[in-house]
């Protein structure tokens, strides 16, 4: 006889909501896409951890670099370095700036690629391990959190502001804010300034939103595929395996492409900061 207290398997909706809930600083469930009053501890942990891994891998590649025949790891890193250097040379025309900008772009690409790649882990693997240590919520893809991607895009914005002031001088940059794009007539100053602020805001928000949207959608698809495997039927299991394999192969392109796009936009925005209107 049922007592009404037995544990029951979560519904599809409950399963997805649980997996979309962050481990945050409040200790309570929080499913809002963005909330500046809450620290998403899982996003901070995995993004900082993978950032450290990125730096260690690049430092290892630099320390092991030789002039002879490179190993596989060195060859792969050299291909990335040359690719980023070529892109930077075509966008940022200041050789002095490229000494800093190119390594930043390489780090951004490598870091975002690793964060995106967390999507390839089984959906329930790390959350189940976390539950063994009392962590009931955990999201492992930092780039599927809008707080994280907007944080990175704001970082790019700060670099752009730095180069605007460095290249044009503070006075020159302020003058550009009030005289571009429509001209230097005093009546146009407020309109020019408003357009400049809208441009900075639009570039920053779209930069972060583009990466977040693609990775959030990919995360949802993996969750839906995982639900197929939870059905107690042969067809459900086969569908889970086949669909998961196909989506994983396709998702490899998304993971690499989104890292490349974010890196390229970073170079483009910094390159624009070097140009005068």
Structure characterization notes:
- By secondary structure, the chain is mainly alpha-helical.
- The chain has one domain (12-273).
- Helices cover 71% and strands 0% of the residues.
- It has helices spanning 12-19, 41-64, 72-91, 95-117, 125-132, 146-179, 189-229, 234-273.
- The radius of gyration is 23 Å and the shape is globular.
- 27% of the residues are buried.
- Mean pLDDT is 87; it is low at 1-7.
- InterPro entries: ATP_syn_F0_a_bact/chloroplast (IPR045082), ATP_synth_F0_asu (IPR000568), ATP_synth_F0_asu_AS (IPR023011), F0_ATP_A_sf (IPR035908).
- Pfam families: ATP-synt_A (PF00119).
- It is found in: Cell membrane; Membrane.
- Belongs to the ATPase A chain family.
- It is a multi-pass membrane protein.
- Approximately how much helix is present in the residues? over 70%
Number of strands: 0
Roughly what fraction of the amino acids lie in strands?
A: under 5%
How many domain units? 1
Structural class, from secondary structure content? Answer: mainly alpha
Arithmetic mean of pLDDT: 87
Span of the ends, CA to CA: 78 Å
Order of H and E elements: HHHHHHHH
What shape does the CA trace take? Answer: globular
Would you identify the regions where 5 or more consecutive residues have pLDDT less than 50?
Answer: 1-7
Radius of gyration: 23 Å
Largest sheet: none
The protein's oligomeric status is single chain
Number of helices: 8
Organism: Zoogloea ramigera
Membrane topology: Multi-pass membrane protein
Family: Belongs to the ATPase A chain family.
Function: Key component of the proton channel; it plays a direct role in the translocation of protons across the membrane.
